[in-house]
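Why does residue order matter? Because the sequence determines the fold. Keep that principle in mind as you read this record.
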Amino acid sequence: PPYLERRRAVGVQVLSVDVIGVTNKYLSITFEATRDTVKACRPGMYANLSVPSISNTPHPFTINRVPGKDDQLRIIFHVVGPFTRR
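Structure:
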């Protein structure tokens, strides 16, 4: 939906950052979202993650629904490269 494509989520509340697996090479960032946003989330959609203290360039990450939570989304990624390591 168009309102997701251009929406800037400044000040999003991060609920948790979790290490996945025993190698510490995968992370999950869970954050709050409106119920309408979660309902509109479809496979293949992404969000541009902007962390100015690390990079001036936003980075795209696939967003996922959190099973059983209608007000949360998450990003799961493999830690490779300077941006994801920091």
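The longest strand covers residues 14-20.
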